[in-house]
Amino acid sequence: MMTKTLLLSQDDIARIIAAVGRDRLMDLIIARLSEGLSRADDATSETPARSGFVRGEDAAGVLEWMPHHQVGQGITIKTVAYTPSNPSVRGAPTITGVVGRFDVISGRLEALTDGIFLTALRTGAASAVASRLLARPDSRVVGLIGTGAQAVTQLHALTRVFPIERVLVFDICRAHQESFRSRVEFLGLSVEAAALPELERNADIICTATSVGVGEGPVLAGEELQGHAHINAVGSDLPGKTELPREVLMSALVCPDHPEQALREGECQQLDRASLGPDLASLCRRPELGAKSQGRLTVFDSTGFALEDHIALDVLLEIANDLGIGTSIQLEHFPKDPLNPYAPSASAGLSMPTSFDVAMS
């Protein structure tokens, strides 16, 4: 019997955050990402590299689709738009999108929700997972290059797995740099504006999350990095768009999230496949691969891939079900006669969404 589609609106997402709490929610995503990545293999999951096209008046703007198939469990597809002019011109986030969950057998839409919060949450969590595997465990100073929306969850996630004491920030947009303090006030950390050389000299972990244009990078010189520094390179998401100097990559252990995708549009496009270190899933399966490099320069090339979205959506759906949040509607048209599109609706015979269970302990 066909079921309705569960919709999670922006108000529903706000209710989830309020009910669970930012810290607990981030902890859940970090834990589930680490677990899910460690179990990922070609026999049980399929995550093609994303695809899309340039669109709109903004030359840097793209709209992409990101699919993931978990064999026997579900298919997640995220459509995500990257529009650097959104914050200043339209008062909207740089990254917008929606995420859908589809039934493997019938192909019908089971759930649909916002992709803005989900993307920020899982991207921060992915950096925390990678940093825990590659950075020194006693890392206390974080440097943030780019202080937009992604920087908030990058810092939040790192505070959940490291004893962070000091935060250094740099952004070419001084308004964003100044407002960052209030946006992360909930963390109770001192946030200091810093010139790039100072940030490089002092940071144990650096996150680059910028809107640098194609061919306009790098965003740091890399000449004064600490020998043990770890970098989460988050901003590269287009061919020709990079944030780090090639010299830094050549001297570091570079670990991509999705090798095929990273070679096409991440920092790894500056390297060849033979120069890459283990990918994030391999690091999660064999932590010793990263542990032996925690005293040297390391880079996590975070292009973002749909397995992360699939896992994050699982968590949100489970919480929504546990708390009774969301609206079930008949979005797709199911006529009583499936061979006649003009036949009356079969909605009278529809059941409620499949139950999701969540372990909140």
Share in helix: 25-40%
Main pleated-sheet profile: 8 strands, mixed
CATH architecture of the largest domain: 3-Layer(aba) Sandwich
- The radius of gyration over CA amounts to 21 Å
Q: How many domains would you count in the coordinates? A: 2
Quick structural gist:
InterPro entries: NAD(P)-bd_dom_sf, ODC_Mu_crystall, ODC_N. It contains 12 helices and 15 strands.
Describe the protein in words.
The chain has 361 residues and is α/β, with parallel strands linked by helices. The chain folds into 2 domains: 5-118 and 307-349, ornithine cyclodeaminase, domain 1; 120-304, NAD(P)-binding Rossmann-like Domain (Rossmann fold, 3-Layer(aba) Sandwich), CATH 3.40.50. It is 34% helix and 20% strand. The chain contains 12 helices and 15 strands. Strands 1, 2, 3, 4, 5, 6, 7 and 15 form an 8-stranded mixed beta sheet that branches. Strand 6 and strand 7 (109-114) form a beta hairpin. Residues 349-361 have low confidence and may be disordered.
Structural key phrases:
361 residues, alpha/beta, ornithine cyclodeaminase, domain 1, Rossmann fold, 2 domains, globular, disordered C terminus
